[in-house]
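A reminder from the course coordinator: this example appears on the midterm review sheet, so study it carefully.

Given structure:
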Protein backbone atom coordinates (compact mmCIF):
# COMPACT_ATOMS: atom_id res chain seq x y z
CA UNK A 1 0.00 0.00 0.00
CA UNK A 2 1.36 3.41 -0.90
CA UNK A 3 -0.71 5.85 1.13
CA UNK A 4 0.78 9.27 0.80
CA UNK A 5 -1.85 11.33 2.62
CA UNK A 6 -2.81 11.03 6.24
CA UNK A 7 -6.58 11.49 5.98
CA UNK A 8 -9.15 9.96 8.30
CA UNK A 9 -12.24 8.46 6.60
CA UNK A 10 -14.40 11.58 7.04
CA UNK A 11 -11.63 13.82 5.70
CA UNK A 12 -11.19 11.53 2.71
CA UNK A 13 -14.93 11.52 1.98
CA UNK A 14 -15.34 15.29 2.31
CA UNK A 15 -12.22 16.43 0.45
CA UNK A 16 -12.33 14.21 -2.62
CA UNK A 17 -13.12 17.07 -4.98
CA UNK A 18 -13.53 17.23 -8.73
CA UNK A 19 -9.98 18.24 -9.64
CA UNK A 20 -9.48 20.00 -12.96
CA UNK A 21 -7.12 22.98 -12.72
CA UNK A 22 -4.86 21.32 -10.15
CA UNK A 23 -4.12 18.15 -12.11
CA UNK A 24 -0.36 17.89 -12.64
CA UNK A 25 -0.14 17.16 -16.35
CA UNK A 26 3.64 16.65 -16.27
CA UNK A 27 4.20 14.17 -13.44
CA UNK A 28 4.00 10.52 -14.51
CA UNK A 29 1.62 8.23 -12.61
CA UNK A 30 3.00 4.70 -12.02
CA UNK A 31 0.69 1.94 -13.24
CA UNK A 32 1.27 0.20 -9.92
CA UNK A 33 -0.57 2.98 -8.09
CA UNK A 34 -3.48 2.81 -10.54
CA UNK A 35 -3.63 -0.96 -9.98
CA UNK A 36 -3.82 -0.43 -6.21
CA UNK A 37 -6.73 1.97 -6.63
CA UNK A 38 -8.49 -0.49 -8.92
CA UNK A 39 -7.98 -3.39 -6.49
CA UNK A 40 -9.80 -1.27 -3.92
CA UNK A 41 -12.53 -0.39 -6.42
CA UNK A 42 -13.21 -4.09 -6.97
CA UNK A 43 -14.36 -4.33 -3.35
CA UNK A 44 -17.44 -2.21 -4.20
CA UNK A 45 -20.90 -3.82 -4.35
CA UNK A 46 -22.48 -5.03 -7.58
CA UNK A 47 -25.99 -6.34 -8.30
CA UNK A 48 -26.21 -10.08 -7.48
CA UNK A 49 -22.42 -9.89 -7.02
CA UNK A 50 -22.13 -10.22 -10.82
CA UNK A 51 -18.97 -8.08 -11.09
CA UNK A 52 -19.60 -7.56 -14.78
CA UNK A 53 -17.27 -4.59 -14.78
CA UNK A 54 -14.23 -3.85 -16.91
CA UNK A 55 -11.70 -1.10 -16.39
CA UNK A 56 -10.12 0.69 -19.30
CA UNK A 57 -6.89 2.44 -18.37
CA UNK A 58 -5.55 4.65 -21.12
CA UNK A 59 -1.95 5.85 -20.89
CA UNK A 60 -0.97 5.87 -24.57
CA UNK A 61 -0.43 9.49 -25.65
CA UNK A 62 -2.14 9.11 -29.02
CA UNK A 63 -5.21 7.43 -27.58
CA UNK A 64 -5.45 10.03 -24.83
CA UNK A 65 -5.22 12.80 -27.39
CA UNK A 66 -7.97 11.20 -29.50
CA UNK A 67 -10.28 10.83 -26.49
CA UNK A 68 -9.36 14.35 -25.42
CA UNK A 69 -10.40 15.64 -28.81
CA UNK A 70 -13.84 14.03 -28.52
CA UNK A 71 -14.15 15.34 -24.98
CA UNK A 72 -13.23 18.90 -26.02
CA UNK A 73 -15.89 18.85 -28.71
CA UNK A 74 -18.48 17.57 -26.23
CA UNK A 75 -17.53 20.29 -23.71
CA UNK A 76 -17.87 22.98 -26.36
CA UNK A 77 -21.40 21.78 -27.12
CA UNK A 78 -22.23 21.59 -23.41
CA UNK A 79 -20.92 25.09 -22.72
CA UNK A 80 -22.97 26.48 -25.60
CA UNK A 81 -26.17 24.93 -24.22
CA UNK A 82 -28.56 26.25 -21.56
CA UNK A 83 -27.65 23.64 -18.93
CA UNK A 84 -23.96 24.56 -18.61
CA UNK A 85 -22.84 24.91 -14.97
CA UNK A 86 -21.96 28.59 -15.35
CA UNK A 87 -25.49 29.41 -16.55
CA UNK A 88 -27.26 27.93 -13.50
CA UNK A 89 -28.36 29.95 -10.42
CA UNK A 90 -26.92 33.12 -11.96
CA UNK A 91 -29.17 35.35 -9.83
CA UNK A 92 -28.35 33.59 -6.56
CA UNK A 93 -25.62 35.60 -4.77
CA UNK A 94 -24.29 32.46 -3.05
CA UNK A 95 -24.59 29.80 -5.73
CA UNK A 96 -24.03 32.03 -8.79
CA UNK A 97 -20.29 32.66 -8.26
CA UNK A 98 -19.68 28.98 -7.42
CA UNK A 99 -21.47 27.92 -10.61
CA UNK A 100 -19.43 30.37 -12.68
CA UNK A 101 -16.21 28.93 -11.23
CA UNK A 102 -17.40 25.39 -12.06
CA UNK A 103 -18.20 26.44 -15.64
CA UNK A 104 -14.77 28.02 -16.02
CA UNK A 105 -13.12 24.90 -14.59
CA UNK A 106 -15.10 22.57 -16.90
CA UNK A 107 -13.88 24.62 -19.88
CA UNK A 108 -10.27 24.35 -18.61
CA UNK A 109 -10.39 20.56 -18.40
CA UNK A 110 -12.21 20.45 -21.74
CA UNK A 111 -9.09 21.89 -23.36
CA UNK A 112 -6.70 19.53 -21.54
CA UNK A 113 -8.37 16.14 -21.08
CA UNK A 114 -6.06 14.58 -23.67
CA UNK A 115 -2.97 15.70 -21.74
CA UNK A 116 -3.94 14.11 -18.41
CA UNK A 117 -1.46 11.24 -17.81
CA UNK A 118 -4.04 8.53 -17.12
CA UNK A 119 -7.66 8.26 -18.28
CA UNK A 120 -9.77 5.58 -16.62
CA UNK A 121 -13.13 4.44 -18.02
CA UNK A 122 -15.06 1.99 -15.82
CA UNK A 123 -17.25 -0.11 -18.10
CA UNK A 124 -20.11 -2.53 -17.62
CA UNK A 125 -21.33 -5.51 -19.62
CA UNK A 126 -24.90 -4.79 -20.67
CA UNK A 127 -26.12 -5.93 -24.06
CA UNK A 128 -29.33 -3.94 -23.71
CA UNK A 129 -30.21 -1.04 -21.45
CA UNK A 130 -33.25 -1.89 -19.30
CA UNK A 131 -36.29 0.34 -19.73
CA UNK A 132 -37.09 -0.02 -16.03
CA UNK A 133 -34.53 -0.57 -13.30
CA UNK A 134 -31.63 1.62 -14.37
CA UNK A 135 -30.35 1.89 -10.81
CA UNK A 136 -29.79 -1.86 -10.73
CA UNK A 137 -27.63 -1.53 -13.82
CA UNK A 138 -25.56 1.57 -13.14
CA UNK A 139 -25.39 0.76 -9.43
CA UNK A 140 -23.15 -2.12 -10.43
CA UNK A 141 -20.39 0.18 -11.64
CA UNK A 142 -20.76 3.69 -10.21
CA UNK A 143 -19.98 2.85 -6.54
CA UNK A 144 -16.82 1.09 -7.71
CA UNK A 145 -15.87 4.12 -9.81
CA UNK A 146 -16.22 6.37 -6.76
CA UNK A 147 -14.15 3.93 -4.67
CA UNK A 148 -11.41 4.24 -7.29
CA UNK A 149 -11.51 8.01 -6.93
CA UNK A 150 -11.35 7.86 -3.13
CA UNK A 151 -8.42 5.45 -3.26
CA UNK A 152 -6.70 7.79 -5.70
CA UNK A 153 -7.19 10.78 -3.42
CA UNK A 154 -5.69 8.82 -0.52
CA UNK A 155 -2.56 8.41 -2.64
CA UNK A 156 -2.18 12.07 -3.60
CA UNK A 157 -3.90 11.68 -6.96
CA UNK A 158 -6.70 13.90 -8.20
CA UNK A 159 -9.64 12.77 -10.32
CA UNK A 160 -12.79 14.22 -11.85
CA UNK A 161 -16.12 12.51 -12.41
CA UNK A 162 -16.86 13.35 -16.05
CA UNK A 163 -19.58 12.12 -18.37
CA UNK A 164 -19.59 14.53 -21.31
CA UNK A 165 -17.51 12.03 -23.31
CA UNK A 166 -20.74 9.98 -23.63
CA UNK A 167 -21.76 12.36 -26.43
CA UNK A 168 -19.16 10.41 -28.42
CA UNK A 169 -19.62 7.05 -26.72
CA UNK A 170 -19.68 5.05 -29.95
CA UNK A 171 -16.63 6.79 -31.40
CA UNK A 172 -14.63 6.20 -28.20
CA UNK A 173 -15.80 2.56 -28.03
CA UNK A 174 -14.59 2.06 -31.60
CA UNK A 175 -11.27 3.76 -30.82
CA UNK A 176 -10.66 1.47 -27.84
CA UNK A 177 -12.04 -1.66 -29.50
CA UNK A 178 -14.75 -2.29 -26.90
CA UNK A 179 -16.99 -5.32 -27.52
CA UNK A 180 -20.55 -4.41 -28.47
CA UNK A 181 -22.03 -5.40 -25.09
CA UNK A 182 -19.61 -3.29 -23.06
CA UNK A 183 -20.90 0.14 -22.01
CA UNK A 184 -18.84 3.03 -20.78
CA UNK A 185 -19.77 4.89 -17.62
CA UNK A 186 -17.56 7.69 -16.34
CA UNK A 187 -14.37 9.11 -17.83
CA UNK A 188 -11.98 9.68 -14.94
CA UNK A 189 -8.88 11.78 -15.64
CA UNK A 190 -6.24 10.83 -13.06
CA UNK A 191 -3.07 12.73 -12.17
CA UNK A 192 -1.07 13.81 -9.16
CA UNK A 193 -2.47 17.03 -7.76
CA UNK A 194 -0.67 20.34 -7.44
CA UNK A 195 -0.71 20.51 -3.64
CA UNK A 196 -2.81 18.04 -1.70
CA UNK A 197 -4.94 20.33 0.44
CA UNK A 198 -8.60 20.22 -0.61
CA UNK A 199 -11.55 21.46 1.42
CA UNK A 200 -15.15 20.37 1.94
CA UNK A 201 -17.35 22.15 -0.63
CA UNK A 202 -20.32 24.42 0.11
CA UNK A 203 -23.53 22.43 -0.30
CA UNK A 204 -27.24 23.08 0.06
CA UNK A 205 -28.27 22.58 3.72
CA UNK A 206 -29.17 19.02 4.70
CA UNK A 207 -32.56 20.10 6.04
CA UNK A 208 -33.57 21.39 2.59
CA UNK A 209 -33.22 17.89 1.18
CA UNK A 210 -33.89 15.60 4.13
CA UNK A 211 -37.24 13.78 4.29
CA UNK A 212 -37.76 11.50 7.27
CA UNK A 213 -40.54 8.87 6.98
CA UNK A 214 -41.87 10.31 3.70
CA UNK A 215 -41.56 13.47 1.57
C1 LIG B 1 -23.22 12.74 -12.96
C2 LIG B 1 -22.08 13.73 -12.99
C3 LIG B 1 -21.59 14.17 -14.21
C4 LIG B 1 -20.52 15.06 -14.26
N1 LIG B 1 -19.99 15.39 -15.48
C5 LIG B 1 -18.92 16.22 -15.53
C6 LIG B 1 -18.27 16.46 -16.77
O1 LIG B 1 -18.61 15.89 -17.80
N2 LIG B 1 -17.23 17.32 -16.77
C7 LIG B 1 -16.75 17.93 -15.63
O2 LIG B 1 -15.78 18.67 -15.71
N3 LIG B 1 -17.33 17.68 -14.44
C8 LIG B 1 -18.40 16.84 -14.34
N4 LIG B 1 -18.96 16.53 -13.13
C9 LIG B 1 -18.40 17.12 -11.91
C10 LIG B 1 -19.33 18.15 -11.24
O3 LIG B 1 -19.29 19.36 -11.98
C11 LIG B 1 -18.87 18.35 -9.79
O4 LIG B 1 -19.07 17.17 -9.08
C12 LIG B 1 -19.62 19.46 -9.08
O5 LIG B 1 -19.32 20.69 -9.67
C13 LIG B 1 -19.26 19.53 -7.60
O6 LIG B 1 -17.87 19.68 -7.41
P1 LIG B 1 -17.09 18.72 -6.42
O7 LIG B 1 -17.20 17.33 -6.97
O8 LIG B 1 -15.67 19.22 -6.39
O9 LIG B 1 -17.74 18.84 -5.09
C14 LIG B 1 -19.98 15.60 -13.05
C15 LIG B 1 -20.46 15.13 -11.83
C16 LIG B 1 -21.46 14.17 -11.79
C17 LIG B 1 -21.91 13.63 -10.45
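Designed residues:
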Amino acid sequence: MTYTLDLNPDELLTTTRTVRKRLDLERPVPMEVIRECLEIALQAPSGSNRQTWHWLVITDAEQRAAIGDYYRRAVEQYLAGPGAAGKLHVDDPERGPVQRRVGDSVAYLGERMGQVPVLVIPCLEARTLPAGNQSGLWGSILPAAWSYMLAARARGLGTAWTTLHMTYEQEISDLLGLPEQVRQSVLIPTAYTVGTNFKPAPRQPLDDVLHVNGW
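The first strand starts at residue 53 and ends at 58. Residues 17-18, 20, 85, 102, 106, 109, 160-164, 201 surround flavin mononucleotide (CB under 6 Å).
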